[in-house]
Amino acid sequence: MTTLAFVMHGVQEANPFVRLALKYSPHPLAGLLAVKFLALGLGFYCWRCGRERLLMRINILFAIVVAWNMLALIVSGFGVV
Fold first, then answer.
1. What is the dihedral of CA 74, 8, 18, 12, to 10 degrees?
2. Can you give the pTM of this predicted structure?
3. Contact present, 13 and 7 (Cβ < 8 Å)
4. 2: phi > 0 → left, psi -120 to 50 → alpha, else beta; which?
């Protein structure tokens, strides 16, 4: 959701893979959903292969990214109701 909020306010996506998906999708939500389903599939694959430690590290990384995005939205005034 933070990515959509940024894109809707003209901020360019920093992740080159997500940026590519956004560029070639008919709607930003479709591109993001495609990337999220791919990430879900990779997460499931890691879980099935017993790579729980890797999944934990990735989850921590994404939690930090989401927290950073939320802070940026609040400070910039995008998230202020």
1. -80
2. 0.70
3. yes
4. alpha
Q: 39: closest CA among 18, 14, 20, 60? A: 18
Cβ atoms of residues 70 and 79 within 8 Å? yes
Helix, coil or strand: residue 25: coil
The crossing angle, in degrees rounded to 10, of helices 52-76 and 28-48 is 150
The single residue listed with the structure tokens 């999944």 is: 55
Distance CA 74, CA 5 (A): 11
Report how far residue 75's alpha carbon sits from residue 77's, in angstroms, rounded to the nearest whole number.
6
Per-residue pLDDT of the chain (81 residues), as tens digits, is: 778 777 777 777 888 888 899 889 998 889 989 999 999 999 999 999 999 999 999 999 989 988 888 887 788 776 554
